[in-house]
């Protein structure tokens, strides 16, 4: 088409001289423009192709992603459902175990405190049944009952003052109403001491030193504690730092087998501090949570006991500064006033962080928890209510008073 157009003008060149050059020039520039346009359109086409490719790629990957997302969403939903079902089953199982544990706890506590309950609760019942009205005589009789259960004069006075105030304030006439009032006042008085009765086993490593006079139940308590803490998921090692008698080491060994925990022991007569040293080395290398040391922490001689405990404390401070220390004093509940006296004496020589009262199953004088908490201000952490491995209960004012009143 361009050729015929230019040929037309060739003819004209003869009529108009110079026009031929002009036409040639225009032809060249038009041809060049055409070339440029062709190039440009090639580029544009290439760009379009490229864009198409990338759009397609994006579309594919979005689809793939959606597929993956959907798949994982379905997976998440399924696993959430499974988890929910598992959780429901687990919660039921855990609740069942907890209910069983609670039942076991109250059964043990209730039967373990029977003698004290008979002494306090039954006597109170029969006194209240004999009175028609709430008067001074009844108060005196109640006071005697509390004192006979080793609640102590000071604590008994505090409890009775409060009871009389409340009876006046609430104008209580019927003796039957007095029992629950008395129970609540006793719980309040124990709680008033504001002591931390629960043993903190969360902050580990923890080193427990168990002290107390001969035969109070130290080794038995250690065995029970080891089993308890192991069941609560803690790793425990016993340290036979009572090297006084070979039989003591053997007895602790038996408890370590019963509880299924490790033990570190030396020969009879070895230095107790060196056994503690080895116990610490073992705890460090195995990352053990709790070390429980059975000490021959007797009070036949105050100076000896102080020296022995100081030496052990020094070793712990030097070798295991990260470890928390608890010093548990064990007293035998069946020794009544003697047990209270031991708390007083040990308090003078050792930084006791808690008391364990053992053999409460064998005494009617469980009231001794009052002077220990209120007068000496030392928390009772556990009570022993039998020789069996599970017969060591955490001490809790409400549970304790409820168990001796109902
Ligand atoms: N009924 C009853 N007996 C207990 C309780 N705790 C310990 N016993 C018994 O008390 C006795 C002495 O217990 P041990 O654990 O050997 O006392 P210990 O303080 O280690 O004695 P030594 O090492 O000799 O100083 C054992 O016969 C235990 O079975 C308890 O809570 N109730
Ligand atoms: Mg012992």
The CATH homologous superfamily of the largest domain is called P-loop containing nucleotide triphosphate hydrolases
> What gap, in angstroms, lies between the N and C termini?
120 Å
CATH topology of the largest domain: Rossmann fold
Largest sheet: 8 strands, mixed
- On the 0 to 100 scale, the average pLDDT is 86
Number of helices: 13
Report the CATH architecture of the largest domain. Answer: 3-Layer(aba) Sandwich
Total beta strands: 8
Rg from alpha-carbon coordinates: 44 Å
Morphology: elongated
Unreliable residue runs? none
User: What percentage of amino acids are in beta strands?
Assistant: 5-15%
The top-level CATH class of the largest domain is Alpha Beta
Strand order of the largest sheet: 3-2-4-1-5-6-7-8
List the ligand species: guanosine-5'-triphosphate, magnesium ion
Counting structural domains, the number is 2
Helix content: 55-70%
- N-to-C series of helices and strands: HHHHHHEHEHEHEHEHEHEEH
**What oligomeric state do these chains adopt?**
single chain
What structural class do helix, strand and pairing data support? alpha/beta
């Amino acid at each position: 088409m361009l050729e015929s157009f230019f040929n037309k003008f060739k003819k004209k060149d003869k009529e108009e001289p110079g026009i031929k050059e002009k036409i040639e020039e225009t032809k060249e520039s038009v041809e060049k423009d055409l070339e440029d346009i062709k190039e440009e359109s090639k580029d544009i086409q290439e760009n379009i192709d490229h864009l198409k490719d990338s759009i397609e790629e994006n579309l594919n990957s979005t689809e793939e992603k959606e597929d993956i997302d959907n798949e994982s969403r379905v997976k998440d939903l399924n696993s959430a459902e499974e988890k929910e079902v598992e959780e429901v089953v687990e919660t039921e199982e855990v609740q069942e175990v907890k209910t069983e544990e609670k039942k076991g706890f109250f059964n043990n506590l209730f039967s373990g405190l029977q003698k004290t309950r008979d002494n306090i609760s039954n006597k109170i019942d029969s006194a209240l049944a004999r009175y028609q009205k709430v008067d001074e005589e009844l108060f005196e009789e109640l006071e005697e009952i509390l004192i006979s259960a080793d609640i102590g004069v000071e604590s008994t006075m505090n409890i009775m003052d409060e009871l009389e105030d409340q009876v006046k304030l609430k104008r209580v006439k019927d003796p039957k109403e007095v029992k629950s009032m008395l129970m609540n006042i006793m719980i309040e008085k124990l709680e008033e001491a504001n002591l931390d009765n629960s043993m903190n086993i969360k902050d580990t490593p923890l080193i427990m030193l168990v002290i107390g006079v001969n035969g109070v139940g130290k080794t038995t308590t250690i065995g029970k504690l080891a089993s308890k803490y192991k069941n609560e998921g803690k790793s425990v090692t016993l340290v036979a730092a009572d090297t006084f008698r070979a039989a003591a080491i053997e007895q602790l060994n038996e408890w370590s087998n019963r509880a299924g925990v490790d033990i570190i022991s030396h020969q009879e007569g070895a230095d107790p501090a060196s056994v503690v040293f080895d116990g610490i080395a073992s705890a460090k290398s195995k990352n053990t949570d709790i070390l429980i040391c059975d000490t021959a922490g007797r009070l036949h001689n105050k100076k000896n006991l102080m020296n022995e405990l100081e030496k052990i404390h020094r070793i712990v401070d030097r070798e295991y500064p990260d470890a928390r220390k608890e010093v548990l004093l064990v007293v035998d509940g069946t020794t009544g006033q003697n047990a209270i006296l031991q708390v007083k004496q040990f308090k003078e020589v050792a930084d006791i962080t808690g008391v364990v009262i053992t053999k409460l199953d064998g005494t009617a004088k469980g009231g001794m928890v009052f002077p220990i908490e209120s007068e000496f201000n030392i928390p009772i952490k556990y009570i022993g209510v039998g020789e069996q491995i599970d017969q060591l209960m955490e001490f809790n004012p409400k549970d304790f008073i409820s168990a001796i009143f109902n």
